[in-house]
Each structure stands twice: as structure tokens, then as C-alpha cells.
Amino acid sequence: MAAFxxxxxxxxxxxxxxLIASSPLRPAESADTNGVYSPCADTTVQRSDGFTFGxxxxxxxxxxxxxxxxxxxxxxxxxxxxxxxxxxxxxxKVDEISLLTVNxxxxxxxxxxxxxxAFAGRxxxxxxxxxxxxxxxxxxxxxxxxxxxxxxxxxxxxxxxDGCASCSRKSNFVCLNNQDCAIKxxxxxxxxxxxxxxxxxxxxxxxxDKHLSVFNSCGRRKIAL
Length: 225
What we know:
Mean pLDDT: 84
Oligomer: single chain
Shape: globular
Helix content: under 10%
Radius of gyration: 17 Å
Number of helices: 1
């Protein structure tokens, strides 16, 4: 069964404060051996552990140093704080299919840059490519994110596209760039419309944990968003 999770929203300035945090934000549960709760810290995990990562919302170029090198949102060389970006943090259970939700009732992605990057780690900083979320015309509400591990260490995060396969089931959605289903931003409740445009992110894991057990949730992702 999939787990459903709401994020903890932070400003980019609050995220930078996590860089110096070395102790857990709360005690670990008995089945969770991972004591690292900051998305800007390194860790290795096993099945059933919790794993903390973040998603930053900002203009696309804000994720690049000197407009060319993409860095982790944890990297101080980025100007995310001055860009007024927002950060959502999550702690799903490793190798469990999860449906993450970013509530947009008081948050408008198009006003916070329109793009998002998933990230975790510091020395071993992994980050996804920037994914388009919203602008003044269109909003994408459904995403799939895969976390790829090797020996329990996060190696990569990437957005899994469905080629607009789900658009045919949604009469008020259009296909953008042959990869994303989007709704007109004016139809969203946070812009005076009637549609809840909260972001749904289906999460899956691939690779191996620190005991070399193989993750298989990536092959089981079946949730209809």
C-alpha cells in the first residue's frame, strides 16, 4: 500500500541553516535506523529506514552556478535565498511507494520560479534536473520521482515521464512538450478557479541498500495521480 505524505515547507534561508545541523530533528523510530534528518547531510540507508530529501522551487537558472553548472540547493554558491525560493522536505520510508503532496492553497509555484529540483546530501550531493511546474499559463500537477541508490547511498534523482499517457483521461488537461499533462493555471483554486492544483509526486526507489538488498518499488509504481 502506498504511503501519503505532506511536506514541511521552508524558505531557502531556513534550508541553509540545515547545513550546520548535525543532530536528528526528532528521535528515530524503532524500525528506522537512519538518524539523519537534514536533506543537506549524507547518510546510507537500509529497507524500512526513513530517508529525508528536499524539493526546492525557484526559477530554472537559480539552480545553476554562473548559468552553466547545476549545483545542489544545499550549496551556498546558489542564490536561492535572494530568489525567494521555497523548499519542501519529506521523509518517506525507503523502498515503499509513496504519494507526496505539496498543498498549493497558500503556495503558487508560478510565483516561486515555476521549476523544482529534488535533492539530498552534501558531500555526496545528488540533485534532479529542474522540472517545469507552472507559469502564468499552465500548471503541471502530477509527477513521478525515482531515487536511485548504490549500497545505500543516494546516487541520483530523476523525474520519470509518462509521455502524456494520462492526459486522455483528463478532459481539461493538455499535453506539454509530449511529456507532461498540464491544466490552465487560471483554472486553479489559488488563481481564482475551481480545481485543486496541489502537486502530487509519486515516489519510487531503485538500486540497493547498504546490505545490498535490491529495491523493487520502482517496478511497482501503479498509483493513478
